[in-house]
Amino acid sequence: MPMSIEQNTSRLRDVTEKTIAEILKTEKVLFDEQFRYALLNGGKRLRPIVTMLCCEIAGGKSSDARYAAAAMEMLHTFTLVHDDIMDNANTRRGLATLHKKWDVGTAILSGDEILALAYRALLKTKSKKNVRLVEIFTKAFFDVCEGQAYDKDFETRTTVTSKEYLKMIELKTSALFSSSAQLGGLIANVSEKKLNALAAFGKNIGIAFQIQDDYLDCFGDEKTFGKKIGGDIAEGKRTFFLVRALEKSPRSVLLKKVAQRKISASMIPEGIKLFEEMGLKKEAEHLVEKYTQTAITALNVFPQSSSKETLIRFILQLVGRKS
Amino acid sequence: MPMSIEQNTSRLRDVTEKTIAEILKTEKVLFDEQFRYALLNGGKRLRPIVTMLCCEIAGGKSSDARYAAAAMEMLHTFTLVHDDIMDNANTRRGLATLHKKWDVGTAILSGDEILALAYRALLKTKSKKNVRLVEIFTKAFFDVCEGQAYDKDFETRTTVTSKEYLKMIELKTSALFSSSAQLGGLIANVSEKKLNALAAFGKNIGIAFQIQDDYLDCFGDEKTFGKKIGGDIAEGKRTFFLVRALEKSPRSVLLKKVAQRKISASMIPEGIKLFEEMGLKKEAEHLVEKYTQTAITALNVFPQSSSKETLIRFILQLVGRKS
Prior knowledge:
The structure is a homodimer. Chain A has 16 helices and 2 strands.
């Protein structure tokens, strides 16, 4: 009997946990406690699961991709640790952020060294294409920093177009998904054509995932979402909704106040209501659907397989978690 | 007529400046101003000069090593930008540190992205051994973080042995010199034996350089040193001198106060005098000489050449700048 999608993804999540634990055991680091705290306290392991499933759909063995998968998760963790400092965030996955539990210096350095470990993990991969692996990984590292720079820049700008917003999430979110998918394919030794298909798959699923994340902040269920609804509005964050709303109604007093972080608690439900009235809820749903379908279509170059079915159902779950 | 050592090193410094400027021009980044500020405002370019000279002594062309050389300088800059935040430093090379001129978030992110650019620069190198280049570069990145972790850890500890101090500077300072030397050799396609010799050269010169740096803080000439004498003492920094002095006289009231940063201005000359009375000035001079000689001896596997002569005279200048 074939494994269910839950069994399949939980198997790969397990491989990720074990591989990261193995890396931490092999590499002796002074900040061992901090590394375990950042790397082994939950996390959905989406990116490593994408890497390993993409390796499988391309005919490879997921175990051959496990170090690259762990490297992607560690690259992701590095960005979270540093972004949390920049955003002055207090909690992450229900725990104090690393810089709150320790201090900013320790968090900067832990982030840096987790990235060094990520490169070392990646280099453990047995593949003739290791230089390409490093190139793709480094491109993701570069893009994710550039995306964060844009996100930071948006905070102080009065106007941000939806085109700029899309560019930002392509860098900040899609880059990691795209390179996660490509690494898996490369390890399975795919052709350039298939590699490009995996890049497109990752890019589109990343955009869908980010818009969905913005969506859940307004229209999700607090219980399953795990965060307070309207948190992005409270922070004046340039999400899909705020950017599009300001584009459509640049003179709205409420929207201006949100963008300038001059809001009171009652404005959060007002803002959400306004987004819905402006048709942005529907627009977001449509975009998530569109990017998800484009992502799935990109996989057409791969033959049908149970891994492909798992991957498609996995990402549908990912963007469909509206509860 | 052969070039003088000054002409030779200034030529390589020039190549470094141009290569970094070229990289910044090619890669479009949002924080262009910050990157130029961090990367193109002086700096002695010691590490890239070592990379290119080591490439030459191994029979290669220095121009083939220019991207790797620039990558080493950028890795070094990344560590300076992040370390300055951790140390709450106000100035660097006579200018405000990046996090003081902008803000901590911008400095964290700029450091991160400069490192991403460093990897991208390294990957531009035309060599069949690119995977080894990345491995050696990543080892240096990992070690320098680990060294900084130890240095940070020392701040809060009551006792630090001189063995621990040596281990720390091997990681924090020698790692970059060692990998700078190795990258140059690898690009010139040296044997494993010669690669090991270059690693030993870099390691020993790094230790000599760091002890000399500690030495200048106490016994240098303010005019040529470029920093205020006794700055390390004022900060209670675990230098060679403080570590050795506390090892020899753990009960000294003055030393304890220095270590706990409970000092007044008058204690700085007292501290320096004490170090000298304890014989540590001589001990440091002896160690710098010893490690420098070991470094030079490691180069015996390379034939005599004008590049080798330049390299030896360059490092002698480096550790001999007592003025």
